[in-house]
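Can you give me the bound-state structure? Components:
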Amino acid sequence: MEKKKPRLYGLLAKFETQEKLVAAARQVVQAGYKRFDAYVPYPVEELDQAMHLKPSPLPYVILAGGILGGVGGFFMQTYATVVDLPLNIGGRPLFSWPAYIPISFELTILLAAVAGVLGLFVLTRFPQPYHPVFNSEDFVEHGSSDSFYLDIEASDPGFDLERTRQFLQELGALQVSEIEA
Amino acid sequence: METAHNNPLVEPGHTNTSITRKIIDIPLTRLRQTRRGWIIGFLIAFLGMMTFLYAVTILFIQGVGIWGINIPVGWGFAITNFVWWIGIGHAGTLISAILLLFRQKWRTSINRFAEAMTLFAVANAGLFPILHLGRPWLFYTLFPYPNIYGLWPQFRSPLIWDVFAISTYALVSLLFWYMGLVPDLSTLRDKAKNGVVRRIYGLMALGWRNSARHWHHYQSLYFLMAVLATPLVISVHSIVSVDFSYGIVPGWHSTIFPPYFVAGAVFSGFAMVLTLMIPLRSFLHLKGLITERHLDLMAKIMLAMGLIVAYGYMTEIFEAFYSGDGFAIFNDLDRAVGYYALLYWGLIFCNILVPQLLWSKKVRHAPLALFVISLLINVGMWLERFVIVVQSLSKDYLPSSWAVFNPTIWDILTFVGTIGVFLTLLFLFVRLLPAISIFEMRELVHHESAHVEKGSGPANGPESDDPGNLNTPQEGLAPGK
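Here's the bound-state model for the whole set.
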């Protein structure tokens, strides 16, 4: 059986330190590449600026979840105690809103947190067990513990196998390898 | 400002590789090579869990009559244990969320474990009110669900607030803990040799690949989850305390309850963290990551919380006498000289007198002494809850309805059993998952090494003591100032 030649996903460059990776990311942005990504074993704040990442939309997602939870919770309690099941307890007012605050608050937090996690899942497309970078054995061995990587995808308009490879090597990469899709 | 503050948070000489190795070695140990100490400890804890299942089975067959509860003391051990367990959980959230917001970098090596402790403590806490229901299988009626009776829960009752507070707390803690675990699970996936193990960790890691674009969103979420968890943790124990203070029972009906309960919760929680952490760091050889400085800092927080709790006790007594309310005064005197006086003085000893030892630096740096103190505080906080729940109920307004509560063997077995459940879960946790957050430790190692390099340079002398530096995130994160 003839094996099909695998498509090229991109070039993966390995860097020695966080500082070198950040410097490289800056150069990659300057060179006009759009479809690239960096891989770091812990969050690096400088990288967000170096890669010109837009602020995460998650705060708005969480805010929306919180508002939905708070307002929804308050209305649920109002509907239950005023409209659907009004109980006359010694003539006390049905719309006793101060008593609804604790549950409205708890539901605010609950829905905000759930919205945040679901939002992260949507933004990062999780769960996603397969990704081309895992085809690099070196990446699997070191990517999640001690090394720093940067990949430029072949689908980037500025991508040219030879020129991009040379570019990455000039940035001080320890090694540059092709990864299959 | 020297001594303790100059102790490093990580043993010097650690790198990303060595930190990763050190932490993942424990979960990735092969089954056959499990350490004997772990097996013995696990079996003892498992025995406790079986005790719990036995006690609960008998409870479900025969009903709550097997407990020592009566009228007026309807709450007994079950609610005491509930409040105690939920309080223990609070330290975990405090360490992981509040200390994160204050950029207290020392939380890094203890937050994962403390969060796990929170989860397991909340799981135990959640069981007790359900077991305490006469018909526990109908517990779902506490939630607003569509039903043919057209009924709703009573939303004006603190007991229903409690249902929402505890379930929100459990869920948010679970999400926070799991989100924190995801990057570390990807490390375990990549380092696991065994195919099945690799698959399981791989499924749990969701395909995390340490992409900078993902970290960017992840950091935003993690920070905001901490922002959400902070008021949540305060609301939870406040609502628990309102279960009491909404009632007109003397000894309960007091406005000091919410802050006093929250402080008590953090106090007992830190005591439990220390109780668990001190043996753990020896057995797992993690003294390089959980250093004496951590113990010292936790002891200081514990002391501060203990003083707030002491203030709460004094306010209670003052309020009773200042109000001139005969029932409230009687209640306070009855605590001191009545049927439960021994327990009351026991709690004063454990919660107020013993923690004063923590003023001494020698004591804070002696793990064994800290261990004993934290155990005593755990006992003291349990006694406090017992006295609040039982003593107040046993003597209310009508002397004709007074009665005392004495626990039966089933009360005791259920309580001891939940400690077994708690320890079983903790043993499984430290064996199967990274007990210390690996990626946050890598971050800390990077900052510590950057700090050392900078500190030795001539350009960075006096400024590094400038508190203004704390405003920039990186400097604020670096310890040792």
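A couple of observations. Chain B touches chain A through 63 residues (CB under 8 Å). The CA atoms of residues 238 and 301 of chain B lie 20 Å apart.
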